[in-house]
Amino acid sequence: MGLSILAYALLGITGSVLFSKRLSQHPRPQWLRPLHYIIGWVMVGLVLLLLAIGLVGTLGHYGSLGHSGHLIAGGSVVVLVLVSAASSTQISPHQPWARAVHVGTNIALFVGFAWVSFTGWQVVQKYL
User: Fold this and answer.
1) Rounded Cα gap, residues 33 and 31, in angstroms
2) Given this model, what pLDDT does residue 61 score?
3) 105-125: b or e for each residue (b if 16 or more CB lie within 10 Å)?
4) At 95, phi and psi to the nearest 5?
5) Mean pLDDT confidence for 71-79
6) pTM of the model
7) What is the distance between the alpha carbons of residues 85 and 81, in angstroms, rounded to a whole number?
8) Buried b (16+ CB within 10 A) or exposed e, 39-73
9) Cα gap 14→125, rounded to integer Å
10) Which of 74, 30, 34 is nearest to 52 (CA)?
11) Which residues contact 76 (CB under 8 A, 6 or more apart)?
12) Over the stretch 29-73, which tens digit does the pLDDT of each residue have?
């Protein structure tokens, strides 16, 4: 989970630099956008891996799902990450809605990561 949050923070930093360069109409470094994409896809992979670990672990321990709010929180984060990733591939001058969707889902993802961290901590306390 920590690596996913680190990736999210790095995406926030690189995304903010991309945004400021676009607003100021200054050229951005050539490596910045590919780095932003790579970190984004790494985060998608990490979140999907955490989903798989959580599902397998919960089914293995309890035999079924839905024993805490962590399932809803985690599912929400997975959906937000996938919407953000999908919208990022659509960003272009011809589709201005995609950038708004991408930024909006990333703002919502801040709340989602906080929620999933809190509920995850509750789950960890059950195991201790």
Assistant:
1) 6
2) 78
3) bbebbeebbebbbebbeebee
4) -130, 75
5) 95
6) 0.91
7) 6
8) bbebbbebbeebeeebeeebeeeeeeeeebebbeb
9) 34
10) 74
11) 112, 115, 116
12) 999 999 999 999 999 999 999 999 988 988 887 788 877 889 999
Contacts of 71 (CB under 8 A, 6+ apart): 54, 58, 65
Residue 117 amino acid letter: S
What the block records as the tokens of 88 is 């990022």
What token pair was written down for 44?
């998608």
**Which residue do the tokens 């923070």 mark?**
9
- Closest residue by Cα to residue 99 from 107, 108, 111, 90: 90
Chain position carrying tokens 């321990």: 61
* Residue 17: both structure tokens together: 């630099």
Helices within the chain (DSSP H only): 2-24, 32-62, 70-88, 96-127
- Structural domains present in the chain: 2-127 (1.20.950.20)
Question: How far apart, in whole angstroms, are the C-alpha atoms of residue 26 and residue 36?
Answer: 18
